[in-house]
Structures are given as C-alpha cells and as structure tokens.
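Project standup — Tuesday

K.O.: blocked on the structure for the chain from last sprint. Re-posting the sequence here as requested.
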Amino acid sequence: MEAFRHYRLDFEPRVLPCGHYTTGETPYKFIDGWYMGWFIYRAYKALREEKAAGLDAPSLNPSEAEEEAVSR
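H.V.: unblocked you, prediction finished:
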C-alpha cells in the first residue's frame, strides 16, 4: 500500500479480520467476495455512465508509475 500511495494510485484498501490463510474459510470468503464484487460493479457502472455520456473510454496503457509499481 505504501507503493500505491507513493505513486498516487487510486485505490481503496480493505482489511479482512483474518489472516491470508483463512480467506477461503467461511465467513471470510463471503466478505472477500463482497469486496471484489462491489469493486467490479462500480467499475462497470462507471464505464456504462461514461458510454452514456458519450465520453471516450480511458486509455488502456498504464502510466510508467503504475507499471513500475506493479513490477515490484
């Protein structure tokens, strides 16, 4: 998360009340699924609103800062 903040990437950190090994266990898998589903819902909603407004889709090429952050 420090790298995301350093490169000023748009993100929302989410913390589950468990360790990484329990994300496949109930109820944590449902909480994790909710966060992922909510992210996808909002992303597609934003794309739909952009299309309805007649705006061009955002560029798919990541910036150099994003590429560097992902490569780490």
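K.O.: great, moving the ticket to review. The radius of gyration is 16 Å. The first helix runs from residue 2 to 6.
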